[in-house]
Design goal:
Blueprint: H1 10-17, E1 23-27, H2 33-47, E2 55-59, H3 62-76, E3 84-87, H4 88-99, E4 110-111, H5 114-127, H6 137-149, H7 154-159, H8 164-179, E5 182-183, H9 185-198, H10 200-209, E6 212-215, H11 223-233, E7 239-243, H12 258-261, H13 263-266, E8 271-275, H14 283-293, E9 314-321, H15 322-338, E10 346-350, H16 356-365, E11 370-372, H17 382-395, H18 400-406, H19 416-428, H20 433-436, H21 446-465, H22 471-481, H23 484-491, H24 494-524, H25 536-548, H26 556-560, E12 564-568, E13 577-582, H27 593-598, H28 600-614, E14 617-631, E15 634-637, H29 642-646, E16 652-656, H30 667-671, E17 696-699, E18 703-711, E19 714-719, E20 725-729, E21 735-737
Parallel strand pairs: 1-7, 1-8, 2-3, 2-6, 4-5, 6-7, 9-14, 9-16, 10-12, 10-13, 11-12, 13-14
Antiparallel strand pairs: 14-15, 17-18, 17-21, 18-19, 19-20
This protein binds adenosine-5'-triphosphate and magnesium ion (MG).
Length: about 750
């Protein structure tokens, strides 16, 4: 039998061997779901002679896709390269790149990032006379995003009687994008569905191509993604999805946990495999994870277990203040690095990006190398966005959004007022900004018009030269011809120098893309073309869209350097590290204040997030917080997180300042005996009986209750409403043990 199965437990084997028909693998964190996927793909190729071109695997992040690719290649060799392994968004870009013209867009479409989206929304709001102080642009953006993830067009919203402003903004926003031949991230999914629905021949092509479909982290798919999967799998029905409903953490972005819960009713013939053993973590870590997640309602209870050994108790450190907390983490890392661990074994996880600053400072102070995942993306830097706008405008001179961005960058004496006038004129004549220039006599001042003409000539000159160049040398040409580089050089500041470095970095990336990555993309697509055959402009367009989807820019070399990883918990999904720190474990930070205010549903999602965070750890887990810290420029004090109170004290090793008294647990918790047994003091009573916290009692008047505290003869007992907590003498005859 195949070596591929040797290292798998019986349930995992079953999942790998069940290659035909729908299959659901539902299992807790670290139970080998992702590993099943990679081995299944290798198995299909090596044992079932399935062509790599007929296999699709979808992961949640680019990083996960890269890792899966590497693993598959390790298992099966070079041929593994040809398997289409990507995120939903990258897959859709590739599908649209071939056929988006069928639904009216140009094949050279460009992707819009969130900052650009916001500026389009602002312009649209201005046009519609909507006051951004009354309804924020971000509000509209999120409403539009929700609608798209639900595959709803403006007219669908209309039927549902939505906020009329949202419908108007959505409509106009979408027109603007279409006119500029741009799509946003949500469009990638929605337009793919439109393409499949309106052009069955395209759908049929991909149905025949992807005969074996795999989806990781299925619990976090949204409706549009669900639809894409359903359509693709319709013909062969060989669809394998894996996930864990306890790890659904993207409902704020439209993910719908129902997708995984209803898989069995969507595919009544589905096989279902449950995995129980965790191979990642020591038992103590799993105990803590189990303790937290069991407080969520309506879940199928599953207890994670591992035979990796009991492990150390979880180190819970409460610092006096935020900087002390950060220094504690840095000290621990520096100390542990001396013996067993390397920098890359550590991860520091936090709830929100803004928490990274304090940690970064502490690590810098100790000279500990780190990588920040997420954060301010390289592609959001001004100089990179400017360069990309130039490149886009050269590929598509009618792209008004890029035009506006660079027409006066570097300064060419073309002011905002002139651009405004030109915009009105262009809108009236239904022309793009670039093509309106030639008719704009009298619209703007003569001198400005000449400058606009020069700008246009420059862009068209560059456009005419692109095919004489490689990507990198064309980028050089653009930077020099536009005067952009000279502008930075003249600045002569450290800041400008670093911008120049970043542009150089962009060039290296383009070279790597042209020499290596592009051939891989084409191979996966089963394309006859080779990178060398493609016109430079086509390469450039593929590059620009590819870059828009990347969240990190680490080269392989950088990724191999040993550094501590800093990231949000959302970004850590699916990953594992020998030592994990979770910081800011405070009510108000984690869970977020808004979730505490919103109530049950939001709190449950925060709790799932806590579960994801805890289960990233293999050997050691540290949970930290601070009694007070600077937040939003003010000193504030937060109580310790409710999630730490859910972890049994027997699994915790507490250090740092004395924890403040825990708020007394709720009656419901006490009745269900979930409350931790603190103060386990035994007192002798006259009657000879003794009371402990957690004892269940029966009182003649108050009914059933639970002992929640013992102080000498006096015991505190939690009774059902309306009685609440009563302090009574332990020896009182009305009181009996149950
Ligand atoms: P998550 O829910 O966090 O995504 P997962 O279920 O996808 O977790 P994996 O990441 O696939 O779990 O596996 C967790 C770890 O356990 C990995 O290091 C993996 O290599 C290891 N592992 C899984 N199955 C086995 C096995 N049968 N034998 C040895 N190691 C295993
Ligand atoms: Mg996984």
């Amino acid at each position: 039998m195949s070596q591929l199965l040797d290292k798998m437990n019986p349930q995992q084997k079953e999942a790998i061997l069940t290659t035909e028909g729908p299959l659901l693998v539902m299992a807790g964190a670290g139970s080998g779901k992702t590993r099943v996927l990679t081995h299944r793909i290798a198995y299909l190729m090596s044992e079932k002679q399935v062509s790599p071109y007929n296999i699709l695997a979808i992961t949640f992040t680019n990083k996960a896709a890269r890792e899966m690719k590497e693993r598959v290649e390790k298992l099966i060799g070079e041929r593994g390269k040809d398997v289409w392994i990507s995120t939903f968004h990258s897959m859709c870009v590739r599908i649209l790149r071939r056929d988006i013209d069928l639904i009216g867009y140009d094949l050279n479409f460009g992707i819009l990032d969130d900052a650009d989206q916001l500026s389009v929304i602002k312009t649209v709001m201005e046009d519609l006379n909507l006051d951004p102080k009354r309804q924020s642009p971000k509000y509209f953006l999120s409403q539009i995003s929700n609608a798209k993830n639900e595959l709803k067009t403006p007219s669908d919203l209309n039927k549902e009687f939505e906020n009329e402003d949202v419908i108007r903004v959505y409509e106009k926003y979408q027109q603007t994008l279409f006119k500029n031949n741009r799509v946003d991230f949500d469009d990638l999914l929605m337009l793919t569905v439109h393409l499949f629905e309106k052009h069955p021949e395209v759908l049929s092509f991909y149905q025949n191509k992807f005969q074996y479909i795999h989806i990781d982290e299925y619990q976090d798919t949204n409706h549009a993604q669900y639809k894409i999967v359903t359509l693709l799998a319709e013909k062969f029905r060989n669809i394998c999805v894996v996930g864990d409903s306890d790890q659904s953490i993207y409902s704020w972005r439209g993910a719908n946990i129902e997708n995984i819960l209803s898989f069995e009713s969507d595919y009544p013939d589905a096989s279902v495999v449950l995995l129980e053993q965790n191979y990642r973590s020591k038992q103590m870590i799993l105990n803590a994870a189990n303790d937290v997640i069991k407080n969520n309602s309506g879940r199928r209870d599953k207890q994670l277990w591992s035979d990796r050994g009991e492990g150390e108790a979880i180190e819970y450190h409460r610092a006096s203040d935020g900087d002390v907390e950060a220094n504690y983490i840095a000290d621990k890392i520096a100390y542990m690095r001396r013996d067993a661990y390397d920098y890359h074994d550590f991860a520091v996880l936090y709830r929100t990006n803004s928490q990274s600053r304090a940690i970064e400072q502490a690590l810098l102070r100790q000279n500990i190398p780190y990588r920040l995942v997420g954060g301010q993306s390289y592609f959001k830097r001004k100089e990179i966005k400017d360069l990309m706008a130039y490149l886009r405008l050269i590929c598509n001179p009618d792209d008004d959004l890029s035009f506006v961005r660079v027409v006066n960058e570097p300064k060419r004496g073309i002011g905002a007022a002139s651009i405004d006038k030109l915009s009105h004129f262009a809108a009236e004549s239904e022309l793009s900004l670039m093509s309106s220039i030639q008719d704009a006599t009298g619209v703007v001042a003569k001198a400005t018009l000449n400058k606009l003409m020069d700008f246009k000539t420059m862009i068209y000159m560059l456009r005419a030269q692109i095919e004489d160049h490689s990507l990198a040398s064309f980028i050089d040409l653009v930077l020099s011809q536009t005067g952009y580089l000279e502008m930075l050089e003249n600045e002569n500041t450290i800041e400008a120098d670093s911008r120049i470095d970043n542009l150089g970095e962009f060039k290296s990336m383009a070279t790597q893309f042209e020499d290596v990555d592009l051939d891989e993309i084409l191979a996966e697509e089963e394309s006859e073309e080779r990178a060398d055959d493609l016109p430079t402009m086509t390469k450039l367009i593929i590059l620009l869209n590819d870059l828009m989807l990347q969240t990190d820019t680490e080269t392989e070399e950088e990724a191999n350097e040993s550094k501590v990883t800093l990231m949000t918990i959302h970004a850590a999904k699916g990953l594992e590290f020998p030592v994990v720190f979770i910081c800011g474990f405070e009510d108000g930070i984690f869970p977020l204040r808004s979730a505490i205010e919103q109530g049950a549903d939001d709190l449950e999602e925060e709790r799932r997030l806590a579960y994801v965070a805890i289960t990233r750890a293999e050997d050691l887990l540290f949970i930290t917080n601070a009694q007070s810290r600077y937040q939003y420029g003010m000193r504030s004090a937060n109580p310790e997180s409710m999630f730490i109170r859910e972890i049994s004290e027997t699994y915790l090793n507490k250090t740092g300042i004395e924890s403040r008294p825990r708020p007394s647990f709720t009656l419901k918790e006490a009745m269900e005996s979930k409350a931790p047994k603190r103060q386990i003091k035994t007192v002798s009573l006259n009657s000879g009986s003794s009371w402990n916290s957690g004892d269940k009692v029966e009182h003649d008047t108050f009914g059933e209750g639970v002992v929640v505290g013992v102080k000498g003869e006096v015991i505190s007992i939690a009774f059902s409403a309306p009685h609440g907590i009563k302090k009574l003498m332990g020896s009182h005859p009305a009181l009996k043990k149950r």
